[in-house]
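Summarise this fold before class:
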Amino acid sequence: MLKYFVEAKSAIRIYSVGILFSLAFLLIPGVQRHFDSNHVLWLYILLFSYIIANVTTPAVKFIATRFNVVDKPGGRKIHSNATPLMGGLAVYIAFAVTIIHNDVYSPELKGVAVGATIVFIMGLIDDIKSLPAILKLIVQLVATYVMIRYGVVADFLPNVWWGKFFEIVITMLWVIGITNSLNFFDGMDGLATGLVIVSALFMGMLAIQSKQQYLMYLSIALVGSGLGFLPYNFRYKQCASIFLGDGGSTFMGFTLASLTIMGGWGATEPIKAYAMPILILGIFIFDMLYTTATRIKNKQISDFGEWLSFTGKDHMHHRLEKLGFTRKQAVFFILLISATLGLSALVLRNGNTLDALLLLLHAVLIYLVIVILMIRRKNKNNAAST
């Protein structure tokens, strides 16, 4: 046992030295330009964001522990040990530094950056001192409005007053819905971070297909930032050593949702255009709709205020655990579903409106199978209790 411990410490030391040397290499003048001239700037961005998040996370963990910003067990929480929060700070720093260092920004990104920063700060404060749900929603609305003012808004309705109005409403519902859904998924080690990595990866691949190089760089930066944090949040045979916290989950959710709005997916076929991001982020939409429907059906909520403040173990990952999945199995299962629908989005890029409708139906059938399994398990438990 002692030998294994010594070998593990030695491997960690070698890895840490390698990471620092890699960062030093990437910062050498001319290295970034070399990657760019060989048309692999995306690889530079991936490595750079990964390393920044990876080296920043231990420092953030130390700060969170030092100031007792920890998530304690109890209530709907399923972890058994007090765990540092604020992991999202490392992800935020990695993403921001990568974007600034590689000079990949635009007027639209300024709106996303300002909005995401507002949401991140609000979430960070909530990690330190719990805030009312209604206040958090108001701040998210303000952040989304700021983003819209910079021109990041859904664009598929007629260019008249009612078209513009409904585009703003749809944008707000989309961004706030995805933001909060990802926050709800931050209930098992590695789940929220993993979902962002998978979703942003397919977003980047879709951006390559549609020749949106700038959007691809932003997506890859988000992938790398998540990958750098993941080893601390999803560990083999161990619990997470740090959580994203509300700051991290809301920042990543807001950014991911905003990137889908920024993308130009093809205005000539709006159903096909918006089916692609819906497929990629479908897991968030499904969980939000299903939990809301079941809570209304079970009379757990009766108005918007109750819906906003309600917390419970009834999200998809909780239900999979009740089906007999281990927590890691539940995480991998959800990531597999997300990747499956991401592949559908890639296939759809070369399809038409009919293909879009068929693939959306395909996604609905997948979720229907999951719902049937959940209901069957619930009925079985009810029969056993009687």
In short: The chain has two domains: 1-39, 40-385. The longest strand covers residues 70-71. The mean pLDDT is 86. The chain has 16 helices and two strands.
